[in-house]
């Protein structure tokens, strides 16, 4: 399992390429503020949009999750803890004013990139009653 990619997975890279091709600039693997050893896969710090592209196995996808037969109780606890950590991270970031977007690795990169772009656009617009650049 040590050879499994933790970052820069194929689905993540595919989404990033689409975002970049459409002029979206982002930061990679940014630390989650106030939480050690946790990172945001794709971060848009200005509008505060955090994107996670979760692997089906490691994050217990409801459609594709599998559980190893060997040492099954250990794996069950491990995968449950991963899902719990995802929820904690999401709540923490939302408490700091971030919009958190989570996608599964099996989702179409084009659709994922489109949803991300829309969220960034909405959060980048100046709010009514505020002046930008002053």
Describe it:
There is one protein chain. This protein is an alpha+beta fold. It has a domain at 10-31 and 56-122. It contains 3 helices and 4 strands. It has helices at 10-21, 72-95, 109-124, and strands spanning 27-31, 39-44, 49-54, 99-104. It has a 4-stranded mixed β-sheet with strand order 1-2-3-4, with helices on both faces. A hairpin with a 7-residue loop joins strand 1 (27-31) and strand 2 (39-44). It is globular and about 55 Å long. One of its GO terms (molecular function) is hydrolase activity. InterPro entries: DNA_mismatch_endonuc_vsr (IPR004603), DUF559 (IPR007569), Restrct_endonuc-II-like (IPR011335). Keywords: DNA damage, DNA repair, Endonuclease, Hydrolase, Nuclease. Pfam families: DUF559 (PF04480), Vsr (PF03852).
Topology overview:
Layout: H1 10-21, E1 27-31, E2 39-44, E3 49-54, H2 72-95, E4 99-104, H3 109-124
Parallel strand pairs: 3-4
Antiparallel strand pairs: 1-2, 2-3
Helix pairs in contact: 1-3
